[in-house]
Amino acid sequence: MSNTYKSAGVDKEEGYKTVDKIKKAVGETHNSNVLNHLGSFGAFYEIGGYKNPVLVSGTDGVGTKLKVALDSKKYDSIGVDCFAMCANDILCHGAKPLFFLDYLACGKLDSEIAAEIVLGMVEACKDNNCALIGGETAEMPGMYQPGDYDVAGFCVGIVEKDQIIDGSKIKAGDKIIALPSSGFHSNGFSLVRKVFPDFNEEFEGKPLYETLLVPTRLYYKDIHKILEEVQAAGIAHITGGGLYENIPRIIGEGLCASIDASKIQIPSIILELEKRGGVAREEMFGTFNMGVGMIVVVDAEHAEKVLHLLDDAYEIGEITEGNEKINLSF
Fold first, then answer.
1. Torsion sign (Cα): 216, 219, 221, 222
2. Which Pfam family, any one, appears in the UniProt record (predicted)?
3. What domains can you pick out in the chain, each with its CATH number?
């Protein structure tokens, strides 16, 4: 028998099936700016309506949260996570997402699983007025075991140059507003999996994996609702490294984000991990979002307006003078 690509472990037909299963749904994310369709070597997106546009891009993956999804055979939320981790980053600069591309790698392709992951991205793109304009599926036997998948994405957004948010306008006296997370989001899962090895155990009346796989919250509508009304001085997406690593990224020299950690509304699953794992509170705040998915820094006179615009937003601190960049009081 002669060798074939299929005998080496790559099934092209399964790839074609994946495209067939997602093609119509992906097309529903397209608008008049998308000039071609799936199948081209490159994706075309026309930009119009801006005076001095700046493109803002971000790329990320889902990390070892994928292991929870694969072991639990629940794949629909992972695509949302992949999109959210990229799109939420570019929101920090005031950008609106334009288009998204994905990369899916595996040992042996299952079109049903691949389609379920991509369809999660489709729903997230729709929620963010963003076009899913392309992607790549790589079947790599020998690099990945059968049943293993890795997912990454790339998002491009746009903002007028004079409306870029980069933290340079943050000043002492500004208020720090927290936007709640939906849980762990997609960070810290190497520790999550160590503390919670059994994803099927019951937690608050349902299998634990259902809580762990709640997708990363999408902040597009919330952030741009704020930006339509007030000028934010800084925005930070709280991902890996928690508040300790992410908030200082937007704080200038001579300033400090002074945060009252006792005001933070920590989800029960995060508190359970802290208790069960015997993890120190400072380590928790340096690893997880602790219930704060995004923070927005605004002038003190605009703080109340922001709190009224978003039902679940709340104040956790203010900007002070100092060289620490961040100070959490427990």
1. positive
2. AIRS_C
3. 5-160 (3.30.1330.10), 174-328 (3.90.650.10)
Distance CA 47, CA 95 (A): 14
Best CA proximity match to 49, nearest among 69, 31, 30, 72: 31
Predicted TM-score (pTM) of the model is: 0.95
Contact between 213 and 117 under an 8 Å Cβ cutoff? The reply is: no
Query: 74 is written with which tokens?
Result: 């629940």
Cβ–Cβ under 8 Å, residues 325 and 256 = yes
Query: 175 Cβ partners below 8 Å, 6+ apart?
Result: 297, 298, 299, 300, 303, 315, 317, 318, 319
d(CA 66, CA 72): 10
Angle CA 248–54–219, to nearest 5: 55
Judged on CB neighbours under 10 Å (0-12, 13-18, 19+), 50 is exposed
Query: How many residues comprise the chain?
Result: 330
User: What does the pLDDT read at residue 102?
Assistant: 97
Per-residue confidence (pLDDT) for residue 10, from 0 to 100: 82
pLDDT in tens, 34-64: 998 777 889 999 998 999 999 999 999 999 9
User: Residue 68: is its pLDDT beyond 90?
Assistant: yes
Q: In what order do the strands lie in the sheet with 131-139?
A: 53-61, 149-160, 96-106, 131-139
- Around Cβ 235, how many Cβ atoms within 10 Å? 25
Share the mean pLDDT of the chain.
96
